[in-house]
Structure formats: C-alpha cells, structure tokens
Amino acid sequence: MDVEVHESLEHIAFLLGRWEGAGVGGYPTIDSFNFGQEIEFGHNGKPFLTYTSRTWLLDEAGGRVRPLATETGYWRAQPDRQLEVVLAHPTGIVEIYVGEVVFHKIELRTDVVARTQSAKEYTAGHRLYGLVNGNLMWAYDMAAEGHPLTSHMSAELKKVA
User: Fold this and answer.
1) Residue 104, annotated as binding a ligand
2) With contact defined as beta carbons under 8 Å apart, do 51 and 74 qualify?
3) What's the rounded Cα separation, in Å, for the pair 111 and 130?
4) How far is CA 26 from the centre of its chain?
5) pTM of the model
6) Is 29 annotated as a binding residue?
7) DSSP β-bridge partners for residue 21
8) Is the keyword Iron in the record (predicted)?
C-alpha cells in the first residue's frame, strides 16, 4: 500500500528508503575497525519515521565477518524543524535524542539514556547526519566506560531502494 508522507515529515523525507555502505569505528576501549551498514527509514502516513540500522564487521577485503550493533526506533518530527528520536538497542540501552534539521543536516544529542542492570555503562551520544552529493553521511560520538564524548563511528551510505 502506497501511503502519502505526513506533512510534518517534509523536512526529513529525504531520509526515506534503504541505505547501504561502509564506515570506520574505534574507541579508547576497542581497536579500530571497518564495518558495513544498512539503514532503513520507513513511514505509514503518521508523523514519524520508522528506523532500523544493522552493522557488521568487515575484514580487510570487505567481506562480512560477524554482526555488530543493531538499533531500531522512531524519528518524530516536531514544530520549527525540531526532531525527537527514540532508539532501542538489544544490549539493554534506550536513548532519546533531541535535535534540529537544517536543510539536509541533522544534529542530535541525547536527552535521556536508560540502561538495564546488565548493560555496559553508556551516558551520552551525539549524532550528525547529512545528505552530501546524494549520499547519507553520518558520525557518532559517545560517552561510555568512563570516557567523555569521543568519536566512535562514521559512515557513508548510498540509497539503494
């Protein structure tokens, strides 16, 4: 069923679809690594986008080694180009981000982080997304395991569907 995009989503409608690509990651507590990623943004006519991201470790030849992180959630458009993002991780962490959309650039910072008793220590995140020459570029800084906000991952994704 083809559903019309809710009018409040016009400023983030460029995200809709499936994106695939690769990126790099690292953190003071882990070695640097290359990863592949697939992100899908969808909608059902209501004032939010659905979101799913899957990543996997890549070897030096670009082959898949094993799954890495998965996250799912909702991107909720707010008045005046503001944005709320709710993300859940199978590792026991839930995040609420707030931010703003300026043209095809989105900047988000955590407003709330909750974690289960068994989840690793994670206290904050900062995400930057942008449409550059038709590709979705993003970068993610996190504060975890006693470290302040530090660069963690970034990638370049191409729209495939």
Assistant:
1) no
2) yes
3) 21
4) 16
5) 0.94
6) yes
7) 37, 157
8) yes
Among all chains, which residue has been given the structure tokens 């729209």?
A: 159
DSSP three-state, residue 40: strand
Phi and psi, residue 16, nearest 5°: -55, 135
> Is 152 labelled a binding residue?
yes
Cβ density class 11-33: b for 16+ within 10 Å, e for less: bbebbbeebbbbbebebeeeeeb
For the segment 46-64, what is each residue's pLDDT rounded down to a tens digit?
999 999 999 999 999 999 9
DSSP string, 57-83: EE-TTS-EEEEEEEEEEEEEEEGGGEE
Do residues 149 and 143 make contact, with C-beta atoms less than 8 angstroms apart?
A: yes
User: 63 φ, ψ to 5°?
Assistant: -85, 150
